[in-house]
């Protein structure tokens, strides 16, 4: 048997990212654009606000008319019109006149300030409406100038921006009933293993339920992909080869779980060979996920993730997720890397870079990290509480409580351009 040559994690990621490609554009109705990413830059097509407007309910008039006004010397205005939000004043306001104006209404012609109701006195006399004020106002007081928030032509959002409620509000402001978004990459998912039962099955001797299938489907959705479930295969070459071959015709990329190591029934390497796919790597200097294998056929990436649940999970977040984020035009497709204080000792040596499934917590302005369960590749129970990977470089001999370590946050929207720049992991 030919010994596999492990490559560095950073090299493995770079090899994969070489094949990552931006996806096509599609438009969706604004109601359906949540969680998508913008396929175009968004530029202000008009000023905000589009007209000078009142931020308060009150009266608009000429500020100079209040010159000399004080507690002892009030000034009285004749109120000539009412302007609710949504209406435009019809009169040119003259000296000594005021307009009753509501929040959001356009500032009427001839006025340059607004006084809130709370500092004005309203009155009806001689069949007319009056307003009295006992303080001076300056031009521009309580006027939201046209374009004071944003000028027309300002670039507000970059292509690749994740659409959150605030982004949606901007899109609505500029009339995007239809929103240009990156098409979700279509990713096929196959689980392999003769031992696998489906979720609803009774447990039988020698068998286990398929947890990688539902887990990866969920990771795919979280990353922004469209999942095509291509079933669960027994470890039999011909049917497995055919399922992979057929699956590839329907998808942008394909994920398989299991069958990538060196066992008698680990069929993926032979399937890739028969497909004529080029293997980018089949061994990575990392734990877990060392057997993660990635191949390409034409433009299609084939991710052979490990069958071991923790290795499968880590392999997805490190190698698959960035390609999906890149397909969605994200400029920072990798998980954000931060420093955190270890909350417990981690005495295990790290012959290879270790990605420990961990929980991040915050207290007193500090970030803390601790393993979220047993640190073993075959373990499934450590994943539920994991919101980060603690990254312990290869060649180290354990870490102590209180030490600062690197952490990759894979559950946040915010990403990073590159996670390997400032440190090299062996
Ligand atoms: N002689 C060697 N043996 C192994 C090596 C090695 O280098 N030399 N590598 C070990 C490492 S590291 C890992 S990780 C595993 C990888 O195994 P495979 O990716 O080939 O996966 P399988 O053999 O199919 O299964 C491994 C394990 O995972 C369970 N499994 C598989 N699929 C699922 C699923 N959908 N849901 C839940 N659990 C699943 C399966 O039952 C096995 O227990 O190989 C080591 N061996
Ligand atoms: O690929 Mo394995 O996950 O290193 O245990
Ligand atoms: Mg195996």
TrEMBL record:
One of its GO terms (molecular function) is metal ion binding. Keywords: Magnesium, Metal-binding, Molybdenum, Molybdenum cofactor biosynthesis, Transferase. It holds the Pfam family MoeA_N. Coiled coil: none annotated. Residues 188-326 form the MoaB/Mog domain. One of its GO terms (biological process) is Mo-molybdopterin cofactor biosynthetic process. Catalyzes the insertion of molybdate into adenylated molybdopterin with the concomitant release of AMP. Belongs to the MoeA family. This is Molybdopterin molybdenumtransferase.
């Amino acid at each position: 048997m030919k010994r596999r040559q492990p490559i560095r994690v950073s090299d493995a990621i770079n090899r994969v990212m070489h094949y990552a490609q931006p996806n096509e554009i599609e438009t969706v109705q604004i109601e359906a654009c949540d969680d998508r990413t913008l396929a175009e830059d968004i530029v202000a097509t008009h000023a905000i606000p589009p007209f000078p407007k009142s931020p308060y309910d009150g009266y608009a008039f000429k500020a100079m008319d209040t010159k000399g006004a004080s507690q002892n010397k009030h000034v009285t205005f004749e109120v000539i019109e009412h302007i609710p939000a949504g209406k435009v004043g019809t009169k040119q306001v003259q000296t000594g006149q005021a307009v009753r104006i509501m929040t959001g209404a356009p500032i009427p012609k001839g006025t340059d300030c607004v006084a809130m109701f709370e500092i004005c006195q309203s009155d009806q006399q001689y069949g007319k409406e009056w307003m009295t004020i006992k303080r001076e106002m300056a031009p521009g007081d309580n006027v939201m100038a046209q374009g004071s928030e944003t000028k027309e032509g300002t670039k507000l959002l970059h292509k690749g921006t994740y659409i959150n409620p605030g982004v949606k509000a901007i899109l609505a402001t500029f009339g995007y009933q239809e929103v240009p978004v990156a098409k979700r990459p279509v990713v096929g998912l196959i689980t392999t293993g003769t031992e696998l039962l489906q979720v609803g099955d009774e447990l039988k001797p020698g068998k286990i339920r398929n947890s990688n299938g539902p887990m990866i489907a969920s990771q795919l959705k979280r990353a922004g992909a469209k999942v095509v479930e291509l079933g669960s295969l027994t470890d039999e070459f011909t049917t497995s080869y055919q399922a992979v071959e057929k699956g590839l015709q329907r998808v942008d990329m394909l994920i398989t779980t299991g069958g990538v190591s060196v066992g008698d029934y680990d069929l993926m390497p032979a399937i890739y060979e028969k497909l004529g796919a080029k293997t980018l790597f089949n061994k990575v200097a990392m734990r877990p996920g060392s057997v993660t294998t990635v191949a390409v056929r034409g433009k299609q990436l084939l991710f052979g993730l490990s069958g071991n649940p923790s290795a499968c999970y880590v392999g997805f977040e490190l190698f698959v997720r960035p390609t999906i984020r890149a397909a969605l035009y994200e400029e920072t497709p990798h998980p954000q890397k931060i420093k955190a204080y270890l909350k417990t000792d981690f005495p295990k040596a790290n012959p290879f870079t270790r990605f420990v499934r961990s929980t991040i917590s915050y207290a007193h302005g500090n970030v803390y990290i601790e393993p979220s369960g047993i640190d073993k590749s075959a373990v499934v129970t450590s994943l539920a509480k994991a919101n980060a990977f603690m990254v312990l470089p290869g060649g180290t001999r354990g870490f102590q409580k209180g030490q600062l370590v690197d952490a990759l946050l894979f559950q946040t929207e915010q990403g990073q351009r590159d996670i390997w720049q400032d440190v090299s992991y062996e």
